[in-house]
C-alpha cells in the first residue's frame, strides 16, 4: 500500500468524525448553519475510507500473491479517485449537477483503471481472492452510474424503476460485500495462521454472493420484483452467513476472538441482518417502509462497513508500513461498545416521533463519532512512525 493512500485515509477518517458529530449537533438543534447531509456522511466511509485502502492495497498485494513484480505507484488512479471524490462531495453539498457529474466520472475512470490493472494479473498463480475484487469493482462501476444518474435524471433513460435502492444494493451487496469477502480470503490465513476454507468452498461462496448481488440489483431495477429480490437475498445472505461461520471458526481457533478487533469483524455482520429481519414487517405493512428505507443505510454503513474497517485497516497498515509480522487487529472495547450503542439508538429512533426521535438519532451519531477517535489515533500513529522511518532512511 502506497503512502499517499495512508495520508488520505487518515484525512478522511478525521473528516468522518466531524460529519458524524455534525449530524449529532443538527439533530439536537445545536447547529443549524451547516445541515448534515446523509450522502456526504455515508460516502466519507465508503469512498473516503474504504476505497482509499482498497485502491492502495490491491495492486501490490495481488501482484505479490501472484508472484509477479510489484507495480509502481499509479498516480493516475490516486488522482482521479481523490479529485473525483472531492468534486462529488462538493457537488452534493451545493446540489451542483455539473460537479456531481465530474466527480462521478472521475471516480468511474479511477475504478476502470484499477480494474484493468487487476485484470492483467489473472491466470497462473493469481490468488482466489482476485475474482472477488474484480467482480466487486464491476459492481462499483454499476453503482457509480446509477448513483450519478440519481442527480442527473438518468433513471428513466436506463429504465431503472427504483434507482436509489439499486444504487445502494450495487455498492453494498456488490462492491463492499465481495471486496470484504476477498480480504477475508487473503488475510484470515495471516491473522489466524490457517486457511479460511477449501478452494471449493471459496469458489461456491463467490458464485453465490456474486449471483445474489446481481439479483438484488436487478430486483429494484425492475421495480421491486419480489421473486428476483428474494432469490438474490437467499443466495447473498446464505453465502454471507457461510463466510462468517468460517471466519468465526478461524478467529476462535487462533484466539483472536479474545480481542476487540476479532469481535469487530464478527459483529460488523450483525448489521446486515437488521434490515433483513425488518423486511417482512415492511412487506406485510406492519410498519411503514419509508422511515426505515431512509434511515437504515446509516447504521448499515457505520455498523458494518466502518466496523469492519476499524478492525482490518490498522492491521493492514501495520503490515504494510511498519512491517510487523503479526500485528493486532484494530479497534478497542470502547469503539466496539460505541458502534453497537450508536446503531441501536438510531434503529430505535426510526420508530419514534419528535422530539425523542431527534434526541436518539443525534445520540447515535455522537457515539459513532466517539467510535472513530481510536482508529484515527491508530492510523495517525502508523503514519507518524512510517514517516519517521522514511526520513531516517
H/E series, N to C? HHHHHHHHHHHHHH
Q: What can be said about the biggest beta sheet?
A: none
Strand-pairing-aware structural class = mainly alpha
| Overall pLDDT metric | 86
* Number of extended strands: 0
Q: Runs with pLDDT <50, length 5+?
A: none
Radius of gyration: 20 Å
Q: What count of helical segments does DSSP give?
A: 14
Dominant shape = globular
Beginning-to-end CA distance, first to last residue: 18 Å
Helix content range: over 70%
Q: Which range does the strand content fall in?
A: under 5%
What would you say this structure looks like, in words?
The protein is mainly alpha-helical and 393 residues long. The protein has a domain of 96 residues. It has 14 helices and no strands. It is globular.
Features:
mainly alpha, 79% helix, 0% strand
List the helices and strands and how they pair.
Layout: H1 3-27, H2 38-65, H3 75-94, H4 97-119, H5 130-152, H6 163-192, H7 199-221, H8 226-254, H9 260-267, H10 270-283, H11 289-295, H12 297-321, H13 333-350, H14 356-392
Helix pairs in contact: 1-2, 1-14, 2-3, 2-4, 2-12, 3-4, 4-5, 5-6, 6-7, 6-8, 6-12, 7-8, 9-12, 10-12, 12-13, 12-14, 13-14
